[in-house]
Specification:
The chain has helices at residues 8-21, 37-46, 94-106, 141-144, and strands spanning 3-6, 28-33, 52-61, 64-72, 82-90, 111-119, 129-133, 137-140. It has one domain (3-146): Rossmann fold, CATH 3.40.50. It is globular, with a radius of gyration of 15 Å. It has 4 helices and 8 strands. By secondary structure, the chain is of the alpha/beta class.
């Protein structure tokens, strides 16, 4: 499988492009953790929005796709009416489908839309906004860089 390293500089530039594409007013952001956390934080700063939340999912173990997606840690969306869900990539679409299913069940009166940096055109669902088409496995800087050069293993 082809792997593409995605550095911070590209992330920053693409996040700016993404903010220019989003033509919708929202009052909260939900990051799909872990991949969407960095994006949500930057977008919260850009939009001067403090209602930035995370929702957890497990759909991969390393690069191996699991048979189902576990969604947990549902945020408390007190006064939200329109919520932007952000993630680093919509690959198969399975994670996004499950996240939307859970959020719409808990919050049927909230409108949810999705933005991602990457989108695989073969996914079962598309984000409302994205920047680049995914054409292989993407090694994001937040996954790779902490493990380089410092003898950090990630294990305690």
């Amino acid at each position: 499988m082809e792997k593409l390293y995605y550095p911070y500089e590209d992330f920053l530039a693409d996040t700016k492009v993404l903010t220019q594409k989003i033509d919708w007013e929202f009052d909260a952001i939900i990051a799909v953790a872990r991949g969407g956390l960095s994006l949500a934080q930057l977008m919260g700063e850009y939009y001067n929005l403090r209602s930035v939340y995370g929702i957890n999912t497990i759909g991969y173990e390393d690069t191996k796709k699991l048979q189902s997606v576990d969604v947990f840690n549902i945020p408390e969306l007190k006064d939200a009416k329109q919520v932007l869900i952000v993630d680093d990539i919509v690959d198969s679409g399975d994670t996004l489908i499950e996240v939307l299913k859970v959020l719409k069940k808990v919050y049927p009166d909230i409108t949810f839309k999705v933005a991602s940096l990457f989108y695989n055109k073969g996914a079962k669902i598309a984000p409302n906004w994205y920047v680049k088409e995914a054409k292989g496995w993407i090694d994001f800087f937040w996954t790779v860089d902490m493990l380089k050069n410092d003898n950090i293993t990630g294990n305690n």
